[in-house]
Design goal:
Largest sheet of chain A: 5 strands, mixed
Oligomer: heterodimer
Number of strands of chain A: 5
CATH architecture of chain A: 3-Layer(aba) Sandwich
Structural class of chain A: alpha+beta
CATH architecture of chain B: 3-Layer(aba) Sandwich
Shape of chain B: globular
Shape of chain A: globular
Largest sheet of chain B: 5 strands, parallel
CATH topology of chain B: Rossmann fold
Order of helices and strands of chain B: EHEHEHEHEH
Largest interface: A-B, 25 and 23 residues
Helix content of chain B: 25-40%
CATH class of chain A: Alpha Beta
Strand order of the largest sheet of chain A: 2-1-3-4-5
Number of strands of chain B: 5
Helix content of chain A: 40-55%
Structural class of chain B: alpha/beta
């Protein structure tokens, strides 16, 4: 028997999705976020990879890399979402963060960093650094995995 | 319009979830089985497929060898293969047409597969 259009099957799969989101968040809450890259990757994949529009999420971490909070910073179109360096820096100070991870999705599936991604990452890193806060990374989340904007920025010729 | 899909996965729970997810979309006709089942299906050329979804977990072969094993049959030599894996870096160099990174959203999976097949002609029939 086909499952097409079966509302109970839809509910079941939605429940599976929700469970994945809860479980991956619980993993992040239980341990230092940066101790296990797989844990962070899984969390970002289930929260961002399948979003049809770009979303920017900011993970604020304390000095022991424990998660203080994960906040949706901005939502945009399928092809772009600017983020506000000033707002992120102010919020990091407000919550007492010592480390910050930025993540946004590329609904297009492209893993490459745009020039805007790189420019914003450089600006954010400089602003946070002046406040004694470390930008751990800015990650692009696609359906085929993660890519680092910070690594792309560092790979640029001086 | 039907996308004839062969799902190859040795883990029965994952296989059931993926099959259920695809079955929810009217475009998919899914044949799901273990690696041994799939080899038998492809060897006997029971039916043509438009896409093969290959889960690379729980197998004794590496992803590249697994793809090569599937490509050996005339019935699957040119069929697009999409890999399901949690180890993106291990499979990026494999001769497959796409990677679906685990964990994935089971609700969004059918649309994701359709999008990934678009460059290869999408729905065949």
């Amino acid at each position: 028997m086909r499952a097409v259009g079966n509302p109970r099957i839809v509910q079941l799969l939605q429940a599976v999705r929700q469970a994945l989101r809860h479980v991956t968040r619980a993993d992040l809450d239980r341990r230092p976020v940066l101790a296990n890259c797989r844990m962070l990757r899984d969390y970002l994949m289930v929260h961002l990879a399948d979003e049809p529009n770009e979303h920017v999420r900011i993970l604020y971490l304390n000095a022991y890399d424990r998660l203080i909070g994960d906040e949706l910073h901005a939502s945009g179109t399928p092809s772009g979402t600017p983020f506000c360096v000033r707002t992120i820096a102010a919020r990091a100070l407000e919550v007492g963060a010592m480390n910050v991870v930025v993540a946004h999705n590329h609904p297009s599936g492209l893993r490459e960093s745009s020039r805007a991604d790189i420019a914003q990452t450089i600006a954010l890193e400089a602003a946070l650094d002046a406040l004694g806060i470390t930008l751990i990374d800015h990650l692009i989340v696609t359906r085929s995995g993660l890519a680092s904007v910070r690594a792309a920025a560092q790979a640029l010729p001086a | 319009m039907t996308i004839r899909t062969l799902l190859v996965c040795d883990d029965p729970d994952t296989r059931a979830l993926v099959a259920l997810s695809l079955d929810l979309h009217p475009a998919f006709a899914v044949t799901a089985g273990s690696r041994a089942d799939a080899a038998d299906t492809l060897r006997r050329r029971v039916e043509p497929f438009d896409v093969i979804l290959l889960d690379t977990k729980h197998v004794d072969l590496g992803p590249a060898a697994l793809v090569a094993a599937i490509r050996q049959w005339p019935s699957s030599a040119t069929v697009p293969i999409l890999i399901l894996s949690s180890k993106a870096t291990e499979v990026r160099s494999v001769d497959a047409q796409g990677l679906i990174c685990k964990p994935f959203d089971p609700v969004a999976l059918p649309h994701r597969v359709i999008e990934m097949l678009a460059p290869f002609g999408g729905e065949r029939r």
